[in-house]
Amino acid sequence: MRKRALITGATSGIGKEMAKYLHQAGWALVLTGRNERVLKELAAEFGEDTKYIALDLAKRGAAEELYRFCKGMRIDFLVNNAGFGVFGDFLDTKLEEELELIEVNIRSLHILTKLFLRDMVRRDSGVILNVGSIAGFATGPMLSSYYASKNYVVRMTTAIREELRRRRSNVTIGVLCPGPVNTNFNNRAGVNFSVKPADPVYVAHYAINEVMAGKCIIVPSLAVKAGIIAASLCPEPILARIIYHVQKRKER
Ligand SMILES: NC(=O)c1ccc[n+]([C@@H]2O[C@H](COP(=O)([O-])OP(=O)(O)OC[C@H]3O[C@@H](n4cnc5c(N)ncnc54)[C@H](OP(=O)(O)O)[C@@H]3O)[C@@H](O)[C@H]2O)c1
Asked: Which position among 21, 52, 67, 146 bears the catalytic label?
């Protein structure tokens, strides 16, 4: 039986490139996102063993609906990739958008991780890749809820990783932590890049190869690795000032 991967946020950017890479590697896929047209196109391109469901993960119950959709299929690899950022001063950003961000970046990812991880641990096989960010290692003025959400993803993933290690489980979990990547992310957040972005094809392939090799924190560039180490050494108030200026440069 072909192994099957479930990818959230498969309609664009990193998630779409992961879907193409896994398909080429012989995986059967379950794809999701809100954009049904793109999901249909991908399913037509990949063939009949590709299942898809259009879902808005900002809606309550959507993560559970996705889990139910996958019942009867064995998910060997879960990629929790869907996510977005809300840019601006906390006093000005729209509460509704930030609550949606929390639903997608935190709540849905949390629910899917728990439900699929339980199945995987029961079988003692499976891999989960959560998509975090370099933002998961810092505080982020002008993108405050986004940075906070990615801190959640990084800390939850590394904690689960340790619990799995302690029970000597064969299930693995890792977190992808890229810097800027050339996707639709900035357009949705309404910002420009302040540094040259990475290629989503490279990031997607790197992430899958590393998580399959058992890597926990997956950082696809030396510059980003250096940035994470520097952030860990920098006092929090100074880091906040630096990041404010980095983010402010992105304003359109
Ligand atoms: N690009 C970067 O600079 C960067 C850096 C670090 C981490 N990341 C992370 O990488 C992940 C993928 O982002 P990307 O850069 O590839 O951006 P992207 O091109 O905008 O893709 C985002 C994906 O998430 C899905 N999504 C967004 N809101 C959704 C919702 N409410 N319900 C269901 N799906 C939703 C989108 O699908 P639909 O539009 O079809 O709903 C899309 O497939 C995100 O978690 C992001 O935080 C990105």
From this structure: 146
pLDDT digits (tens, 9 = 90+) for 118-152: 999 999 999 999 999 999 999 999 999 999 999 99
**Residue 180 Cβ contacting ligand 1 at under 6 Å:** yes
Q: What is the DSSP string of 22-36?
A: HHHTT-EEEEEES-H
Range of the domain at 142: 4-248
Contact 5, 77 (CB under 8 A): yes
Query: 86-122 pLDDT, tens per residue?
Result: 999 999 999 999 999 999 999 999 999 999 999 999 9
Q: Is the CB of 227 under 6 A from ligand 1?
A: no
Q: Are 40 and 34 in contact (CB under 8 A)?
A: no
Number of domains in the chain: 1
Q: How many Å lie between the centroid of ligand 1 and the Cα of residue 167?
A: 32
**Dist. CA 11 → ligand 1 center (Å):** 9
